[in-house]
Amino acid sequence: MRTYSLLFALISLVMLVMFSIYVFRGPVDPLIAAGLFASFLACAVPALLLLKPFDPPEELRRREEARRERVARRGFTDRPRKDPPKGRGS
Question: Full-prediction pTM beyond 0.85?
Answer without folding.
Answer: no
